[in-house]
Structure formats: C-alpha cells, structure tokens
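Appendix B. Raw example, untouched.
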Amino acid sequence: MRPIYLEMDAFGPYAGRQVLDFRLLGDKTLFLIYGPTGAGKTTILDAITYALYGHTSGNERTGAHMRSEHATPETMTRVSFRFSVGQKYYRIERNPEQEIAAKNGTMKRVKAKTAFYETDKDGTDLRLMGVKKPEVTTAVEALLGFKSEQFRQVVLLPQGDFRKLLLAKSDERQKIMQTLFRTQKYEDFQERVRSRYDALSSRQKDGNAEVDRILHDLGLSEEAQIEGEREKRTADVEAARREVKASADDLAARRKQAETDRLVESHFAALEKAERELQTLQAGSEVQKEREKQLDILNKAAVYEPQYRSLAQWETEGKARKRLLDEKEAANLREEEELKEKQAQLQAVAKKQEERDASEREALVLRNLLPKVQGLGQAQAELVRAEKASAEASRVLNDVIAAYTALDEEEGRIKAAREKLKTAPEAAEKASVVVRQCEERVKTEQTAQSLLNDIRALKETCQTAQSAVEAAEKAEKKADLTVKTLQIARLSGQAAVLAKELEENHPCPVCGSLYHPAPASETGQIPTEDEVTAAETVLATAKAKLTDSQMYRSRQEAFLKAKEDEHTRLREEVPADGDIAVWLEKERQAKEEYEGLCKKAAEYKSFTERIDAIQKERQAALLQKDEKTRLFDEAERSRIEKKVIVQNLEKDVPLEYRNIENAEKRLCDIDAVVQAYDKEKRDLEDLVRNVEKRIATSRGEIANLCGEVARLREKYGAEKKALTAKVLADGFASWDDCRLMQASIDQRDELKRRIDEYSAAVHRVEGQIAAERKETAGKTRPDLKESERILAEKDAAYKALVAAAEHAKVVLENMDKAIGQIRQLRNEQNELQKQFAAVGGLYELTSGKQSGISLERYVLGALLDEVLTAANLRLAIMSRRRYSLQRSTTWEDKRVKQIGLDIEVFDQYTGCARPANTLSGGESFLASTALALGLADTVQAYAGGVRLDTIFIDEGFGTLDSETLDTVLSVLSSLQESGRLVGIISHVSELRERITTRLHVNKTNRGSTAAFEVN
C-alpha cells in the first residue's frame, strides 16, 4: 500500500479541509512529520487507519470521537484517502456518525457512511467495491493482506506500540506471518493429512469393533476359538442328518401300515352301510305293493278318459250358450233404458238454444276489440320495462352515491388513525439505533469482563513469579557469597604455600622483592580447585535461574500491563454503567420496543398507501356518479312517455277487457260453450238413432239362442246315462269315482319309476353286501384311531429332528458367513495398515508429533529466520554489531515449543541471548525498526506476498543518542534504493536538520494545518 492523496474535513485538530498530496514527495521516500505536541501529527496516521479500517491508529478512538472541536457546526467530519496497491488505484471515503447543524439552525444526526472505489491513476472512479462498513473493511483486509491490528504492527508503528511486533507472542506473530506470507496452504495440507489419518484410524477401530461384535455373536472371545467351534458345529450337523434319515425310514413304514389299516376299515364300514340300507329297503315292501295296485286302477281310468272329456265339452258348450242368452237379454234391457234417458237429454238441450245465440253475439264484439287490447298490452309491457329500468338506474345511482360516501368516511377514519402513528417511522429508526447501541454495549461489557478475568489471573501469576524471583535472588546471593568465600580462602591458602618457599635475598615470584618481612601463614584448610569450580557452577545455575525468573516475571508483568491498559482504554472510551445483565435487559427492552414501533411504522405505511388508493377510487366514483345520474334521467323520461300512451289506450277498451289474456280467454270460453252445445246436440241425436238399431238386432239373436240351449240339454243327458252303465260294470263305485281317478293319470310314470328304482336298489345292495363280505373274510377290524395316533407321533418326531438339523445347518452357515466376514475385514485391515503406515508417517511428520514443530510452523520458522537475517543486516549497523535477533532455541514453556516463533536478542558483549522484552527503550526501538524493515524486505521478495511499500514510525527517536541517531537515519535513507516510503513522526530537533523532506504540522488557536516541505 502506498498513499497518494489524503483529505480530512473537521477531523481531529484540523478544523477545515486539510489536503495532503503525497505525490509532492516525488522520488523522496524518507520524510519527517514534525510539529508541536498536540498539533495533529499522529492524527494523520489516525486518518489513514480510520479510512482503511474504520478506527484510529492506536485503536483507542472511533471516527465519531475524532470530530474537530474547532469545526463549525455545519461542517461534516469526513476522510477521503487515495492509495495504490501494485498497479491498481483505490479511494475510500468515510463519514462517522455525527451531529451537524441543519439549514434551520437545529442539530441533526447524520448516519455514518462508507464508500470504497477502484479508480484510475488520475482518481476517476471505475467501480464501486462496497458501501457498508463491514464489507468495506473486509475488502480492505483482503486487498492489503492483514487486519488493522497487524497493520499497526507491520506498516504503521503507533506511538507507544512500536515494540508490539518485536514483543508479540508466538501465536500472534504466527497470525501476522500467515497473512503476510500466505502460508495457509501448509495448514490446509496438514488438515487434509490429519483428516486422512483420522479416517484410516477410525476405519481400523471400526474394523476391530466389527470383528469383536461378530465373535460376540458367535459366543467366542477370540479368533483362535473359531476353528474348534466350527468342527464341533459340523459334527452336530452330521449327527442331526443321520437322526433325520433314521426317523424318515421309520415314518415311511408307519405310513404304509396306516394306509393298509385305512383300506381294511373302509371295507368293514361299507359292509355295515350296505346291510343297514338293505334293512331299510325291506321295511318298504308293503309300500311297493300299494304302488303296484294304484298303477292298475289308473290304467283302467285312462280308458274312459276320452268319453268323459267329450261329455265335458258338450256340458261346457251348453252352459256357454245359456250364459250368452242371459247376457243378450240383460243387454237388451239396458239398451231400452238408455234410449229413454237419451231422449230426455235431447229435449233438455233444445231448451238452451237462446243462450247459445247470445254467446255467439258476444264473441263477435270481442273479436273486433282484440287489436286494441293487444296494443294496450304492448304499451303496458313497455311501461313495465321502463319502470324497471328507471328503478334499476335509481338503485345503481344510490349504490354509487353510497360507495362515494363510504370512501369519504373511510379516508377520514384512516387519516385519523395515521395521524396517531405519524411519529412511528422516525421512532422505529431511533429505536434501531438504541438496539445497535445496546448490542455494542453488551459486547463491550463482555470484553471488559473477559479482560478483568485475565487481569486477575495475571496478577496471581505475577505474584507467583515475584515469589520465584525473590527465592532465586536469595539462592543467587547465597551461592555468590559461597564462591567469594572459597575464592578468598583459596587465595589466602595459595599465598601461604608460596610463603613456605620464599628465601632471603631471592625474589618473590609475586612481587619480585628480595625481602620478606611478613610472609603469609596458613589459617586453615585450603579449598581445592574442584570445590571452587563446583561452587561457581552452583552460582552460574542460580544466576541462570534468577535471569529466567526475572524474564518470566517481566513477560507476565508486560502481559498484565497490556491487559490493564486495554481495560483502561476501554473504560475511558466506554465508562462502566451497569453490568452485563443490566445491558442485556436493556437490549431486550430496546428490541421489544423496536419490534412494536416497526409494527406501527408498517401500519403507518399501509394507511398511507390505502389513502392514496382511496383518493383514486373516489375520483373514479365521482365520474361514475355523473354517468349514472345521466342514465337515471333518461330512464325516467322514457317511463313517463310510456305511461301517457297506456292511459290514452285504456279510454277505448272496457275495463274487463284491458288485459289481452283475459279478453282472449273470454273469447275462447264463449267459443267453447257454443261448440260444446252444438256437439252435445249432434251427439245425442246420433246416439238415439244407434240405440234404436241395436235393440232391434238384439231381439232376433235372443230367439235363436233359446232354441240352441234346449237341443244341447237333451243330447248331454242321453250320453251320460250310457257311459255311467259301462263304468259301474268295470268295477268303479260311481261315475264321480272314475272321473276322480282320471285326475291322477299323470302320476302313472312317477309310480312306475319308483317301482323300478326300488327293485334296482334291492339288487344293487345285495350285490355290494356279497362283495364286501368277500373282502373282509378272515380279517380283524383295525383300531384306526390308535393307528393314526402312532402315525402322528412318528411324524412329529420326524419334523422335530428336521427342524433341529436345519437349525444346526443354519448355525453352521451363519458361522461360515461370519468367518468369511472376519477374513474380509482382516484383509481390509491389512490393506488399511499399509495405507496407515504411509499416511501415519506423513501425519507424524507434518503435525510435529515427534519434533514439536508442525509443517506450517516449520515453514514459518524458516521464513522468520529469513526475516531475522534481513533485520540483522540493519540492526548490526544501528547497534554497532552488538545485537542480533534470533529465534529462541530453549523452551521452558511447552506451549512455546509448539509455536517455535519466539524472538530473543543475542548480545555480543555478554555472549548470551535474552528475551526481547529485556531491551531498553532505545534498544527496543532499534530492534523493532530493524525487524519491521527486515519483514518488509522478506515479504516483498516473495512472489505473491503482501506488498509492503510504506512504513510509518511514530516516535521512539528521542531515546537514541546522537551517534545512534545518525546510524539509524543512514539505514532509513538507504531504503530509497528499494523505493519504499518511510514516514517518521518525531519531536527530535536534530531530525529536522538531517531530513530535508518534511511534513510540517502547525498548531493555531483555530485548529491545525499541515504542508509538505520538499527541498
């Protein structure tokens, strides 16, 4: 990222619009930002960070807190930042939420706005990349390659925080390097290997569990028992098969004997049945004789049947003629009575001739009036239609008027209801802001509580660390005293040894004197060199332990200070006002209120839409009302005209004939009366003539029938007398007895059939008895129930043996199937083991199970080595080759070993490495600056890495002496060769003399201003 153009309005100490065009720097890549305290030097970095991430460089203030106190009420706080990444150009604009003066002088709240554009080189917008704060921040993070916290550790080193990258924990440094070098692919590869390893491991466990389950189902505890168990179950199957075969042979023999018993029993049963049937037939022999006698009588009666039938015909004919004679006489009598009646009716009809003539005259008058009556009817029908049309038009007009009135009333009601809700939309919007504020406050309180928990834990850790330091100090002092005591004692002892060898006039090997007035004497036992060395070793160990304890205490105190500072900044920004429960309740109440206001706002919108619709409907109803009024007037005029026509026609037609239906009906009735009279008269005259003719004919027929009846009576009597004599002579008791038997002649065939059937049945049964006696001769009748019982027992035993054999077979088959499954599972396990051997080795290697360093951490460690190598090139110059940065190789903390990215400082003066947090302020500044530059060089060198074209350093130079300051500036000046832009914020006056390219920030009573000074 390289800045191009920064524009600030009412931001921080800058009251008006402040423009910083970085293009004015030209090819100058090192510049100084200077000015008095509070003028707004760091604000420039705040503006850049706010534009990119939505908060300031120290992450202590939001954009809303950066509004200038010097700005006029109508000036809006705003930041616009143009920058480039590689060959592409971008622009971001952000306005924080704020209150500004409206045109009417009142204060109005303006919502926060954000816009992110891709532009061309001249700043013309090419495309919009986002307008919402979260999506813009996410897009910036993706574009630059790191989040705001990482941005402040790598690109922008804020005042007081420039040591963060140097002192960061290994896991924090890992996140930064993951982002900068994009090593996520190594972690992804580790994850894929781990997933494959877990899958293979799970499949192995599942396979073993499945084998155990199969063995459990077989009732076995281990696979070695399978072979013996299978042999046992195979023997069970063979034994069951033999038992089934023996039982089957026994059952077949028993079934054969049962069949023989059933056959013999059937012959004995058939013999009993035939004998019972013969006894039954013999009991019916008398009935058989009676049937033969009855058949003989019927045959005799059949001989006289034709003669009886002939006499019956003559009798029937005579009776028919007599009935016909009686009927003719009765009919003739009725005809004479009818003739008298019709003659009387004809005389009565003749008396109504006058009424008939009057009706005919009335009909003539009605026929002349019919045309007028029809005209009146048509006019009345048209009048009825006109009245209906007028009534319908009136009804429609009233409906339209009612609808128009209803719309007026509805509009009034809805307007009144809407008026009650007019504040709902704005209130809902305000409530949404309150909800968001409550949600943010809940998150803040949760963060604060988490920080307090961390602070309490760290305080306890610091107390423990302090106790450890005090104990280590005591041990170190004790060991130091011991060493010094031993050293003094040994020196004293050595002097006594040398004194023994001194001789007068011979030089002392220590001072060279020839005189020895006071030689040293022995004061006790002299410590050996090994004792001194052992004591020194104890002292070195105690010092190392003390150093380690102090380093651990310093780290924990630094962690505690960072947490306390973070909590303090949080509480300065958001003072404590209730615990989490209070704010959760406020959040719930705010959400309830917001939901209720949203419903009211929706009702308000619905009412507004309905009012607009009603106004349109009312306009349409007004047009419809005018149209329906016109139609009603036309219908009413037509009705009046039709009514006048009807009244004129009614004057020419009598009241009783004005209805065409009544007139036509009356005419039809008159015509019907006349026609009925004429028809009745003609019919009566014709009827009288016909009756007279029938009476004359009937009298001749009656005379002829009387002669025929007398002749038939005489012939029937003679024939009956002769036949009666023959019947009596043939053995019948009487005439009627013979005729009675003739009625049963049809039964002869049935009697003959029964006689023949009886004879045949007797013959059949006698033959069957002879045959069955032959079959049972010499045999004993078997006990069939006992035979069937024995057969059933044999069959049940056989079925039980078959079921047992089948069960044994199924058990063996299931076992064979289970053995096959186990073999298949073991084959799969062997194949899995081959895969597991390869994948497991790769997993052990990439996950760092043995070495403690995973693949990604190994790569990051190598990259960190390169970063430190690049950093040491500059740190060696700036520290006059005293300090160099290196990765820590001693891990007391197991968690540190899992990361492997801790940095320590090697001091050439002492020949020892120590934690970076033990450096002084100036030393930390040099190391942090070198590390930031080395990181930028290494990242830039990797293809596809994040571009680090710019670095800002806020303060830290005041801790350097003049000579070191020259060295640092020399190193920073050399960055011009790489084209990297370096901005320095400092109060150090020497920097203004040595850096000629400057950004001067001036402070006034009306706000600050800034301008580039390029020489």
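End of appendix B.
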